[in-house]
Amino acid sequence: MYAALITGKETVELVEFPDPTPPDAGVVVDIAFCGICGTDIHAYQSGTPYRPSICGHEWSGTVSATGKAVRSLTEGDRVVVAASPACGRCSACEAGLADRCEAAFLSAIGSDPLAPPHGGFAPRIAVAESRVVKTDSGLTDEQAAQVEPATVAFHAVRQSYLRLGDTAVIQGAGPIGLGTMQWVRAAGAGRVIVIEPNAERRALALALGATDVVEPGDEASTLIKESTHGLGADIVYECVGRAWAIQTAVDLARRGGSICLIGVPDTDATISPAVWLVKEIRMTAALAYFHEEFDMAMRMMADGRVLVEPLHTSTASLAGLGDAIADLAGGATQQAKVLVNPNWA
């Protein structure tokens, strides 16, 4: 069996692995689709060491084998990748901080004891039973492959200081930004402004319910000031994942406003602390998700409150993964979410 791995700067290789077998407390999943994440793109661009277990971490599939200790899943169950629930035994759990469980966090970043030697860019994968949840029956396999990034955005909005009726700004209309925009609307924002340089993505944001879309720069600043009587946004969600965008988010927020960091920059950021202090900015940061949030997000996806089908713009094979990532990394792509079907020849 071959799995695709990002092994260096602008390098994707097909690496041969033995067919996986389930550990006692694990399952083998036949992958249906796996999405290309911004984290994959950053690794491809930078060439920094990239953990193989998360090279392809947005997947859906069907359980094809179970370990002897598995009780909650059977062969034929449709599942999506998730984070483990709180263990109840680590230092964080024993301190009453189950939402900061060390074992759950390690599973979310692919460092748990049963982490596989490759990610979801493969026909099959063996993972811990706790790392998957059953797919909502109302979702297709293509939709299910977008549950993981949708839950990233869901978690971020739940962590943030958003209040009913707020003017919210979303920086970046990639898959995470478009998901965040929809969750923000579902959570009761009064006005949602999306800042995005790509015209196709701006059009998609409008189609998915943004109040306004605008290119970054002076035009965005003017629009936000005019729509808030000169105050600035109540909350800004940073979904670009570039260091410069963090200070920009603060610049667009009102005094007493807040920002939420979701995009992950791969370099340090330069900020203006005096601006943060004068504005008394509140900040939340969101990485990954909690186990229970997957079912919550899937229910809202299945009933149509959040749409992921329009984000899926193309599908690639394993052999075409390198070209697909190169296109997404080039900065001029027309794609939103690209899924990989590892079963295509």
TrEMBL record:
Gene3D superfamilies for this protein: Medium-chain alcohol dehydrogenases, catalytic domain, NAD(P)-binding Rossmann-like Domain
Q: Which cofactor does it need?
A: Zn(2+)
Domain named Enoyl reductase (ER): which ranges?
8-340
Xref: PANTHER family: ALCOHOL DEHYDROGENASE-RELATED (PTHR43401:SF5), L-THREONINE 3-DEHYDROGENASE (PTHR43401)
**Family membership noted in the UniProt record:** Belongs to the zinc-containing alcohol dehydrogenase family.
InterPro entries for the chain? ADH-like_C, ADH-like_N, ADH_Zn_CS, ER, GroES-like_sf, NAD(P)-bd_dom_sf, Zn_alcohol_dh
Give yes or no: UniProt keyword Zinc. Answer: yes
Q: What is this protein called?
A: Putative zinc-containing alcohol dehydrogenase
Its ancestry begins with: Bacteria, Bacillati, Actinomycetota, Acidimicrobiia, Acidimicrobiales
The keyword Zinc belongs to this UniProt entry's keyword annotation: yes
EC number(s) given by UniProt: 1.1.1.-
- Species annotation: Ilumatobacter coccineus (strain NBRC 103263 / KCTC 29153 / YM16-304)
Keywords, A to Z, come to: Metal-binding, Oxidoreductase, Zinc
EC supergroup of this enzyme: oxidoreductase
